[in-house]
Amino acid sequence: MSASLTASHSSKVNNSEPGANLCRHLNHAASDIPTELAVAVQHASGSIFSATSLNYKELTFAELDSLSDKLAHALNAYGIKRGMKAVLMVTPSLDFFTLTFALFKAGIIPILVDPGMGVKNLKQCFIESQPDAFIAIPKAHLARRLFSWGKDSVKHLVTVGGCGLWGGVSLDTLMEGVTSASSGSAYEMVWLDEDEMAAILFTSGSTGTPKGVVYSHKMFEAQITALKNDYGIAPGERDLATFPLFSLFGPALGMASIVPEMDASKPITANPDYLFAAIGKYQCSNMFVNPALIERLGQAGVTQTQIHKLSSIKRVISAGAPATIASIKHFSQMLNDGVEVLNSYGATESLPLSKMGSQALFATTEVTDSGGGICVGSPIEGVDIAIIDISEAPITQWNENLRLKPGEIGEIVVKGPMVSRSYYRRDSATEQAKIIDGSAIRHRMGDLGYLDDEGYLWMCGRKAHRVDTSQSVKGEPARYFSIPCERIFNTHPQVKRSALVGIEVKDQSGVPEVVPLLCLELNKSLSCSLGAGLYAELNAIAEKHTQTHGIKRFLIHPEFPVDIRHNAKIFREKLAVWAQKNHKE
């Protein structure tokens, strides 16, 4: 990188920054370590007739900073300016990084959605968010035309990785049109108030309707601080980035983001050889992977004949859904002694909240298998976790009297600098999920759990997945929680996984009542007995534990419907409909 380019960017670093913007970290990195690698993107080439080869495209910190400056100038010149909202549907690539940082620098609000949420949900997201611009690859533009995404609000179209036939302008043309006067000049970054809207991130909708979470730079800064302090990520590291949003934190941390060739929305389809190759080439020290990918890589890397060692990896961060202890143990055989899988708990609205190392997690197996829930660790610095009574009613103001005692199961409520303050144009959802606590906001996670005497958080499932019944167990109305019940039955050798649902049956008087039913997906690798013997064994398990006492109905399902990204979140709502239709009185 030329000295002139480095010098032009060093002038932007200001120790007394007048507001908040995530990109300040990129400015500092471009000044301090301009020639160090910031991003590398892996590409696989070849066909069914020839061997696949892997190549890589790279950017240094100075190049990423300079290109995003130029692109911010170009977006402004095209009419996309501060305060406007822009849908960004671009696959992980160098363009994804330069575009995202350009949008942040310019104070343009990126709208990030999960393509896996389905056409109907995507259209609703765009109706709600009212984007001014649509920046996307040709495939997304085709869908935009077919399904009329954003037709009432979008005024600016940019095509990434293709020509401008979709309307608007191509990214290449946009960049070529930047005047010589602005192309080499540093972009004057837009500074926002710390709680001002900086981005809209839509939830996946795997447990309900997708909602737009309003992100501020204060939230991004809190996430960066957590990754530095609680996870120990340091400048100079290299991260195998398998999730687009997390990959953006790399350059902000002075860490290179190494993006493998894979569909980030369907990690279960990733080619493990590509990921192993990227780790080896760049000697990655960090990995951010979800449970589905942990299982996929473990199966590929640990076989009966060999173990693929990931000797450069110092840290593995897993988030998105609870990974099974068995899959973590299998995957961990590839890691050096002492290297742990750090399991993180959180949600789009608030992440990360707590963490737990794999060694400590392994020690909780007996409690989990006995119906004690899944331990997700202790709160990270600056996070307060409370448990409140299970209720559907909004809570406007926080009161410490709401806090339950250790060991009592209720809804998980969190407070911290990474907790979002609202949903975008969803006043009802905001009222339902947010509690005012002085100048701060507490978020109701919609998850159930409890805190133990040592302050560790134990997950007991989604609030919406509990089954409240009118039947009496030991003189009390029976309430069943998904994770404790399911983990107990999952200990049966023929059960791959289970799902608790509620169905309606008629009592002796013909009055409908809700009763629990357990859906079962059996382990196909075993010779499963589908007769009375299996059901007798399951009934015996149910009677043995207080958490499952009263569960007497079981149905075998051929293959559970699960979310695409994590391959772990079971669509219990779909199973409940199926169970209601297929059960016998």
TrEMBL record:
Signal peptide range equals none
Q: Name one Pfam family in it.
A: AMP-binding
- Keywords assigned by UniProt? Ligase
Q: Which domain of life is it from?
A: Bacteria
Name a GO molecular-function annotation: ligase activity
Domain AMP-dependent synthetase/ligase positions: 55-424
Q: Which PANTHER family match?
A: LONG-CHAIN-FATTY-ACID--COA LIGASE (PTHR43767), NONRIBOSOMAL PEPTIDE SYNTHASE PES1 (EUROFUNG)-RELATED (PTHR43767:SF1)
Give the protein's recorded name. Answer: AMP-dependent synthetase and ligase
Tell me what organism the protein belongs to: Shewanella sediminis (strain HAW-EB3)
